[in-house]
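In this section we walk through a basic example: taking a raw amino acid sequence and producing a predicted 3D structure, encoded as discrete structure tokens. The instruction is simple. Fold the sequence below.
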Amino acid sequence: MQEPSKLPLRLSMDEAVLLLVGLKLLDEMVEAIEFNGKSQEQLMSGLMSKLSGAIPTDLVAMTDEIVDDIVMASVDPLQAITADSSHPLPMYSITETRPVIEEGLAESLSVEINYYSMTREEFTTRRVDPYGLKPEGNLLWMVAYCHLREDMRVFRVDRIKEATLTPYAFEPPQAFSLEEYFDLDDDEEEG
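The resulting token sequence is shown next.
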């Protein structure tokens, strides 16, 4: 016999935000959970919808940023490049976006991109300062400072639907090295 439920719960706003972050992380990092015959998708979407509806919009957006930061911090950038199987084939042609990014790199000008986030399954417009491009297999990756997230990010170029050069100049970090960023130093690989 199942113990009677003690619901409804009374949660503080902080507890609800923390619970939503935890659910989003679980949904992001675990592929298949089934409980009492219900799939992860059924369970997660309903619960996340309830929590998102009870939390102010700005705090819900903050939970997305927290999840992005945790996921990015927990994955080595090179592993993310080589192990990214969430969409192994290119999404968009890079024939129009790549030259814009390359010009931004050459001229140290910010680029505005319309980027598809697999985490949130939505497009966001971001201004980025491109620091380098890295081919890996049939994909091209851009390391850039993201003004939206106020941090360095790695972007799959084929997830950029549109790219526009801006008039905003930036100063690339003097110490930045694409090889060091991805720990591709040949000495380290051999040792």
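Looking at the output, two observations stand out. The chain is about 40% helix and 25% strand. The radius of gyration is 20 Å. In the next section we compare this with other chains.
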